[in-house]
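not sure who needs this but someone in the group chat was asking about Alkaline phosphatase from Chitinophaga pollutisoli so here u go. i didnt clean anything up, its just raw.
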Amino acid sequence: MKKARYLVLLLCMAFAANAQVKGVKHVILIGMDGLGAYAMEKADNPVMKRMMAEGSWTLKARSVLPSSSAVNWSSMIMGAGPELHGFTEWGSKTPELEPLELDQYGLFPSLFTLLREQKPNAETGVIYSWGGIGYLFPKQAVNKDVNCPTDSATTETAIAYIKEKRPDFLFVHFDQPDGVGHEIGHNIPPYYEQVHKNDVLLGKILQAVKDAGMWENSVIILSSDHGGINKGHGGKTMVEMQIPWIFMGRGIKKNQEVKESVMTYDTAATIAYIFGLKTPQSWIGRTVKSIFK
């Protein structure tokens, strides 16, 4: 009898560890390059603030070091830091360090790898404004791979894809407000003007999710790779390292500030949990379970 109870307990634990959030069919991850957490309260960004009110969020999530682009975008979708996935520089095109583990595509395992292996019929896409994103995921594992010249073009391409294919998982990358931060400066009026413009684009994507009939079965995520200081980033200040982290949608608690620690690689782990994916041992990201109802 004790043995039978033990086996049942093991099965329950295995199921719980690989649980899927009930009713979620679509996850849309939206990343805004250079959107520092400090900007969220200062900017004219009603869509972002509405996502916070309707979801779970923290403005104290942290990037990995260095606080620069390729390092952090790869960490966000690979569930681990640069010490493990190997991308260590702002514009990494190949890993500078030997990855701890390689998938069948020759990269450290990412969400796209797990989805293709465990849900082979999943519709997945990456639509991005910065060309550097194209080196950070296995192109063979996705259905849609488009590098657009501007954030507006990225938005229109994403809207068309959402309405046509209703993707299971879509990663949308915006190159702004990082561009303005580098050219003019962070934390000044032109930077906040750009944040407002990106907020408008974000609203269009959310409307597309509604128009496609996906709203009730979706989780929408907004995050960033890093913030900025003066005209740069990459350092160890909190304005560079703290990023917004917002989850909204099916099964997500509303108007909840997340108090526990969150790292950017926890994004991948939390998305994997939503989809019920088994994650590799090499991932160090943790599911932020407090956001779920």
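also Confidence is low (pLDDT under 50) at residues 1-18. if thats useful
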